[in-house]
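Researcher: Last one for today. Full complex below.
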Amino acid sequence: MSTLDDSIRDDFPILRRRIDGRPLVYLDNAATTQKPVAVLDAMRDYYETTNSNIGRGYYRLSFAATDAYEHSRGVVQRALNAEHADEIVFTPGTTAALNLVADTFGRSVVHEGDRVVVSGMEHNSNLLPWRRLCETTGAELVVVSGDATGRISPARLAAALDERVRLVALTHVSNVLGTVNPIRELVAESHRHGVPVVVDGAQAVPHWQVDLRDVGADFYVFSGHKVYGPMGIGVLYGRRELLSELEPYQVGGGTVKGVTHTAPVKYVPVPARLEAGTPNVAAAVGLAAALEYVEKLGWQNVQAHNDALVRTAVELLTELPAVQVLGDPAGDPAGIVSITMPGIHPYDVGGHLDKFGIAVRSGVQCANTFVDELGLVGTVRMSFAVYNTEAEMRQVRDALRTVEPGFWTHEHPTERFL
Ligand code: PMP
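Model: Here's the assembly. Have a good evening.
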């Protein structure tokens, strides 16, 4: 049982909001989590007391803002057990971090005739940057399909790792089914073949304490907004030996010292070299506050809470003959339960739940290729956070009893779905 009780809901002001007079039941946490007062306060305090540009001003306020930014980097480093603070690059989010790796590291190691390996359950953000890299370099994108839940075994990965593979990009947790990849073993398998690995940790970091030294990935990325932090901030972790060699992604202010019109440009070391322009300092401060908030709750408590909700949801939803629970969410829980209701479009299910103030994600979950592989037009996804309750799960079950086919049909062209 979870050790977090309902009083935690008081930390999240948005949960006081009502939808048509009903309390908001927010179950779209894999899209973005709500923000606790600790995060809102930290950002407000930064703007009220410290705001100025960083690394550019020779005055105390600017030194304080720079310190706040670098302190936040240190909090991220410690929270994820990275070896060095300069292995943490702030980006606007997971998508931006993956594009950064593809356009810098990817371009340096992938050439015509080479191969890049991805899994069959990638989010578009960990698929399209690699697809574009392959298209522009003349390399080949190899998609490794997993088992019925999308999970890749080390043996499946090994079968794809021939001498042409230069890079592997894998999700840690599927945002569609919540399937957890055996990431440490997959990274080890790639390394046995001498291939570096990029891991999309967007759906893992919110649910348990990710230990980067244990995972062993060369690059690991996530978004702050999915782990109680603000939008507009994400993290690219890169192993120092690789990260420090990267050419700048974007160039401009903050990436250089002493430019002339003629001499070759000398870029500053990472992480500043990869953070061109004014960064989102307040968001970095908010992300640090979010990670500290979770640490205070206790990662194990957060994980136990979310695991319990997954098990309860699966139990309650299997009571309903019209509902099919997809994958094996309770087997190795990651805060996600996805369902389908044969004969009823996911948008109609989502729209029906919305009438009860229940927010879920319906559609192809930005992972059209995986949803296609599952043979579905879309899914309905519930994803949990520390403030969700078992009573909310019962509300979902009760609301699902009354769904009926509606406006949407399975014949609508898929490009209309998100
Ligand atoms: N990868 C996965 C697995 C995700 O779930 C998401 C967000 N839905 C992303 C990448 C993209 O994250 P962001 O939109 O924050 O860049």
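Residues 40-295 form a domain with the Aspartate Aminotransferase; domain 2 fold (CATH 3.40.640.10). The CA atoms of residues 176 and 365 lie 6 Å apart.
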